[in-house]
Amino acid sequence: MEQSALEYNTERNELIIPEYGRHIQKMVEQAMKIADRTERNNTAKAIIAVMGNMNPHLRDVPDFQHKLWDQLFKMSDFQIDVDSPFEKPTRESTTPNPQRLSPPQHRMKYRFYGNNILKMIQICVGWEEGELKEALKFSIANHMKKCFLTWNKEGVEDSIIFAHLYELSNGKIDLGVLEENLTSKPTHYQKKNNNPPAVGKKSYGKGKRK
């Protein structure tokens, strides 16, 4: 066979719907060239039948028949002139609109804490009162202080962390009324609990307010 007679993939038209293959697309292209309308309609129906046979479990579903006809028009670049049992589609109607990204559920005021802090606060608020919940409150506060110092290395008073935690929890977590500081040793509540909720690698501390 001469090289000029070979049909290379790089020289072929791009497949519009690859799952149907090149033979189906060629059948559609040939149908477009048929001058007689009746013969062209019959050829289109035959192509639809072949496309349906490629999906036998769906070919009798009415919506699927509609989809097949839409695909036929799409493979003809919406140029084929045949009588479809459905409304003739347009390029716009068969092109899915890009989904808009949903905005974040929470617009966090103190972004340097991160969204995980909000989740931890929500979990803590939902817990029953007790030593475990108190330990989690201080674990969250210590983690908030660590995040704050990463953002601003000049230091921060515990009262500011407590105020932020109070605000982010909608007033449901108030550590400002307790005589506890955020230090490196286990707090009074954490020492009383054998398995406090771990937030970071460090343990937390106890002390008197200045």
Give the distance, in angstroms, between the N- and C-terminal Cα atoms. 95 Å
SSE string? HHHHHHH
- The overall pLDDT, averaged over residues, is 78
Number of domains: 2
Large-scale geometry: rod-shaped
Rounded radius of gyration (Å): 34 Å
Residue share in β-strands: under 5%
By DSSP (H or I, 4+ residues per run), the number of helices equals 7
Helical residues, percent: 40-55%
Low-pLDDT segments: 1-6, 184-210
Summarize the main sheet. none
Overview of the structural elements:
The chain has two domains: 13-94; 111-191, no CATH class. The N and C termini lie far apart (95 Å). It is 43% helix and 0% strand. It has seven helices and no strands. The chain has 210 residues and is an all-alpha fold. It is rod-shaped, with a radius of gyration of 34 Å. Mean pLDDT is 78; it is low at 1-6 and 184-210.
List the helices and strands and how they pair.
Elements: H1 21-32, H2 37-53, H3 62-75, H4 115-126, H5 131-151, H6 158-168, H7 188-191
Brief overview:
The chain has about 210 residues and is mainly alpha-helical. It is built from seven helices and no strands. It has helices spanning about 20-30, 35-55, 60-75, 115-125, 130-150, 160-170, 190.
